[in-house]
Amino acid sequence: MVSIPDCFSESYAEARAKFCAAAATAGGSIRSWLNPSALGPNGEKLHLDTARFGATDADKMLVMISSTHGVEGHCGSGAQIAWLRTGGPSKLPKNTGALLVHAINPYGFAWTRRVNEDNVDLNRNFGDHDKGYPRNDGYLAIADAILPRDWSAESRAESQRTLEAYAQKHGAFALQGAISGGQHTHPDGVFYGGVKPTWSNRTIRAIAREELGRARRVGVTDYHTGLGPFGHGELICTVPPGAKSYARAKAWYGDEMTSPESGTSTSAIVTGVMTDAFPQELPDAEVTSIAIEYGTYAVPEVLNAVRADNWLHQRGDLASPLGREIKADMKERFFPAGDKWREMVWTRADQTIGWALKGLAA
Ligand SMILES: [Zn+2]
Which of the four, 45, 72, 153, 333, has the lowest number of CB atoms within 10 Å? Predict the structure, then answer.
């Protein structure tokens, strides 16, 4: 009997070892990409690993991706390992393969951060950087409160007043959008999308071409945490309602599917998401993508942890007691301790994988 909580890991290094072992045991073909510019907190090398199952010329491919937002990889890695250990590969239908992408953002996973080694939010980095970026005036208005000079009680209270005033004027969801919608103006801020494709961006595009170039139908699931009710997995369609793949995702996932553009999601509208890479790199395939977003804690608590972590890396001392406190809080907000949350994660992941396989087969 597989212990589901044991499929989850307390660190990136533990997750990587478990993932590679489980993938090898299940007969997967494993490839690894070394991050060329960053190391982990213990000086360890950082890798993105993929495991592939099924025929090399499989028509249909199921794709599961973990750690787009670094620390959220505790969740996605656990789901991937649970799928491997519970016999997922052996249950794949004929003519259907699977590609597991483990730790697409290994730096963020290893350092307990949402962002990558460039302080970039990968899920805001996949737009066309030559085209210019959408404005985020809300962020400009509160940028100083997001990254205060110090993390004292006074400066935190002052930031809090600014954020609350913004929420009073524009609404709480507008505040969430201003902070998390993405910005390209403050490289030392939060939810920063960068001004060029990151290493993870370039690498996942190469992986898509090399591993999925022969597939006709591709179903992508990207694992996230931090929004919504505790343990619930919201299935978010990140393409606009007008897109062809939107209707397909609706057919696969039904009314369970939400959409930021339609106002049915807990997520703000964001642009430049990672899963956009797949239809771009696979123009001849039918790509259907979803983000599964598992709830943890209330939005203000989660965003506060993100702000604190950003301050810590920009202006604080990681080795200080405050630094350790911020890191522990960050981990809990994106990867709650205890067995229940992990069991809920896998139950929903298993259900969603079933729906994706059905969709691929239809
Ligand atoms: Zn996320």
Answer: 153
287-346 pLDDT per residue, tens: 999 999 999 999 999 999 999 999 999 999 999 999 999 999 999 999 999 999 999 999
On whether the CB atoms of residues 234 and 292 are closer than 8 A, the answer is: yes
Same domain, 119 and 241: yes
Q: Ligand 1 centroid to 160 CA: how many Å? A: 23
Distance 189 CA to ligand 1 centre (A): 16
Ligand 1 centre and the CA of 72: distance in Å? 6
Q: 207-234, pLDDT tens digit by residue?
A: 999 999 999 999 999 999 999 999 999 9
Ligand 1 center to 95 CA (angstroms) = 31
Question: Is the pTM of the predicted complex or chain greater than 0.85?
Answer: yes
Cα distance between residue 11 and residue 109, in whole Å: 8
Which residue in 20, 23, 19 sits closest to 9, CA to CA? 19
CA of 267 from ligand 1 middle (Å) equals 10
Residue 190 lies in a domain: no
**Ligand 1 centroid to residue 225 C-alpha, Å:** 5
Distance 57 CA to ligand 1 centre (A): 31
> Given the structure tokens 């010329």, which residue do they identify?
57
pLDDT at residue 337, as a whole number: 98
How many Å lie between the centroid of ligand 1 and the Cα of residue 68? Answer: 7
Residue 328 forms part of a structural domain: no
Per the structure, how many domains does the chain have? 2
For 155-167, the pLDDT digits (tens) are 999 999 999 999 9
Q: Reduced to 3 states, what is the DSSP secondary structure of residue 218?
A: strand
User: Could you tell me the CATH number of the domain that includes residue 107?
Assistant: 3.40.630.10
Residue 94 C-alpha to ligand 1 middle, in angstroms?
Answer: 32
**Residue 229: domain span:** 5-130+195-296+335-361
Task: Please indicate, yes or no, whether residues 123 and 267 belong to a single structural domain of this protein.
Answer: yes
Within a domain: 185: no
Structural contact between residues 293 and 348, judged by C-beta atoms closer than 8 angstroms:
no
Mean pLDDT, the chain, integer: 97
Work out whether strand 217-230 and strand 233-236 pair parallel, antiparallel, or are unpaired.
Answer: unpaired
Q: Let me know whether 174 and 253 are in one domain.
A: no
Does 350 lie in the same domain as 253?
yes
Same domain, 166 and 213: no
Which pLDDT band holds residue 41 (cuts at 50, 70, 90)? very high
CA 1 / ligand 1 centre spacing (Å): 30
Mind listing the pLDDT tens digit for each residue in 90-116? 999 999 999 999 999 999 999 999 999
